[in-house]
Write a structure and sequence with these properties.
Length: 289
């Protein structure tokens, strides 16, 4: 029984780790000449293609949904998955990377507030403490207190937009999960997010990157499998079994995973503030375990 209670939290944390290691693939793709928006296209369209192919061969029941529920998947796929990445990358152009990261991780705050308003999910002292610890931890990990913060008003609005749209996955996802199992929700999310990402298509840029280096397709595949399809399946499965606010706070482990990936894979330094931030996030996660 205890294992069953821990499994959803473990799934959310595993999803956060898989999202956090996205730098392993993104740095290789950027080095080959892909822009961030092209990576969004590769990620979403690749995730869509993999999920559709896999379930077309294994279990076609995931494709059966009622037309009146399609707005839920437009919400998870276009409003959340696509728009949050567009806002996030646009924010990075106008603000420092630290500011963009911290503004993105206002998402748990939005989820807690929206969950309280929509479903009267209780805002407990434990949840507020965990939220404060994870937000402070993310700020430390992203370098806010080391002088790396630079913000413009348009950039701040885009950053808050990225956090808000990121949060909406948990909101639209909860409505969809009231009618369908997690795998159906994940597949239909990318049936919307993948084709919608074609608006970001830059054929010349993709051809220039992939044509001279066929091995780059393996990196794109790893991005689509390990840091797109798999974590969304895990997160949606966990979301179906716990409060959205709690799930979103647990997912704040992502910047910790990203920071450790930078240290272990790319030799980036870890200062005292980064270490403190990691401890704060882990403390917040432990409170909600």
């Amino acid at each position: 029984m205890e294992t069953q209670k821990k499994a959803p939290a473990a799934a959310i944390l595993a999803a956060a780790v898989l999202w956090g290691v996205i730098g392993l693939w993104n740095r290789r793709l950027m080095a080959a000449g892909l822009s961030p928006l092209s990576i969004v296209l590769v990620r979403n369209l690749g995730g869509c293609a993999l999920l559709v192919l896999f379930f077309a061969l294994r279990d076609r029941r995931v494709f059966r949904v009622k037309p009146r529920h399609l707005p839920y998947f437009f919400g998870t796929g276009v409003v959340s998955v696509l728009l949050f990445t567009v806002c996030y990358f646009s924010c990075q152009k106008l603000c420092s990377l630290a500011a963009a990261s911290v503004l993105l991780y206002t998402a748990p705050s939005f989820v807690v507030l929206l969950s309280a308003a929509l479903w009267r999910e209780p805002v407990t002292g434990k949840k507020l403490l965990a939220l404060a610890l994870t937000l402070a931890g993310c700020a430390c990990v992203c370098g806010v207190f080391s002088g790396g913060l630079s913000v413009t008003l348009p950039g701040a609005l885009l950053g808050l937009g990225s956090g808000f749209f990121y949060a909406l996955y948990s909101v639209f996802g909860r409505y969809a999960l009231a009618h369908y199992p997690p795998l159906t929700v994940t597949v239909w999310t990318f049936l919307f997010a993948g084709p919608a990402s074609l608006a970001l298509l830059r054929p010349a840029e993709l051809a220039a990157a992939f044509a001279p280096d066929p091995g780059l397709w393996l990196t794109a595949l790893a991005l689509a499998v390990c840091s797109t399809a798999a974590p969304y399946v895990l997160y949606t499965w966990g979301l179906a079994r716990m409060e959205p606010g709690r799930a979103s706070i647990l997912a704040s482990l992502e910047p910790v995973a990203a920071s450790l990936t930078g240290v272990l894979a790319f030799g980036e330094p870890m200062g005292p503030l980064t270490a403190l931030g990691i401890l704060c996030v882990l403390a917040g996660v432990y409170i909600l375990r």
